[in-house]
Amino acid sequence: MANRPPARERLDGYRALVSRAVPLADILADTAGMHLEVTGPGEPEIICSLPVTCPADNRELIRRHIEIPTDLIGMLDAAARRDVERRREIERLRQALEAKGGKPAKDYAAECAMKCAEPAFMRFLIERHDLPHPATDKTAATRVRSVLAIASPGQLNTDPAAAAGWREMVKEFEMWRNRG
Description:
A hairpin with a 2-residue loop joins strand 1 (about 25-30) and strand 2. The chain is built from 8 helices and 3 strands, in the order H-E-E-E-H-H-H-H-H-H-H. The chain has about 180 residues and is α+β, with helices and mostly antiparallel strands.
């Protein structure tokens, strides 16, 4: 689909739509089929009539039109919370390994080179760390070295303080990007 909004926007829209939907007040049945009723400002109102020929699974999906999306959104939210917790735990373990003198779990120099080539990271450096515009991957790398007070990207893999500074910069970038 062309011009489809980002997933986060769509999920927020679905969440708002489901929260505003009026729950069923009653389900009526007669020889014509099943009728779903909501309570309106006045008398209860039938919002949907399903003929007896409507397949049972379709009837059940329509009957549970609020419950199912609410449940699915809750599952997505729970999975996102678990993902954040796992990422924090992985980062905590990575830092503990490095603090004990272990080899960095990541090649931070390579990660830095890749980030410095990303347009979003360049915009972050322009906005947050005074990188002159227009930016290039070389000027971005120079600004990172300057901010972290390192002579070369290789220090990100050998100097625990430099690695910690890089991790903080990446966290700051991720927070900046998630806000925008």
